[in-house]
Design a protein that fits this description.
Distance between the termini of chain A: 41 Å
Shape of chain A: globular
Distance between the termini of chain B: 37 Å
Mean pLDDT of chain B: 90
Number of strands of chain B: 12
Number of helices of chain A: 0
Order of helices and strands of chain A: EEEEEEEEEEEE
Radius of gyration of chain B: 13 Å
Strand content of chain B: over 45%
Radius of gyration of chain A: 13 Å
Low-confidence stretches of chain A: none
Number of helices of chain B: 0
Strand content of chain A: over 45%
Structural class of chain B: mainly beta
Helix content of chain A: under 10%
Oligomer: heterodimer
Chain lengths: 112, 115
Amino acid sequence: AQSVTQLDSQVPVFEEAPVELRCNYSSSVSVYLFWYVQYPNQGLQLLLKYLSGSTLVKGINGFEAEFNKSQTSFHLRKPSVHISDTAEYFCAVMDSSYKLIFGSGTRLLVRP
Amino acid sequence: DVKVTQSSRYLVKRTGEKVFLECVQDMDHENMFWYRQDPGLGLRLIYFSYDVKMKEKGDIPEGYSVSREKKERFSLILESASTNQTSMYLCASIPTAGSSNEKLFFGSGTQLSVL
């Protein structure tokens, strides 16, 4: 069975600093990988997704993620964060049955 | 635009009541999902359905059942609501094939409080 681990429940960072949100997954089959963002009091939005091909995936709002098969990781990065990036970020994995499993989320707190 | 509609935004029920949460999608998607979202636990999959009358248990099906009599509608049923089922419930759908088949479309959620 697949699972997703987001080790950091909260990541505080200063504005304009770089950030990395970690995600590891376990699955015995090929998977699709996703990052979703949830701003306060809003629904989930897709940030980016990895289906196949290039392991570096670029998403909206300047975020990118790198798929590392050997380490079963899909970490999310942004070189310079803004106050408006304060939100909860969810990593997710989908297998061929379209079952989508989410991690427990990482709350990114950007301080001025 | 794809629309996934959940019938209630807020719901308050009493312990022991039978609760129905309805979800309707208008894009002919084959796959539909029910999640619950709790602080610190993320979204946990309760049940999903890949076709009419077909259902699969997710990670936390205990205390829940589902119904998919028509392709566009996926209902979540709490047979006897308990206080630990107080949560935000999210419905989602995705097609099996097509250019957007890897994108999950979410409803706006139902905040259920069981007293």
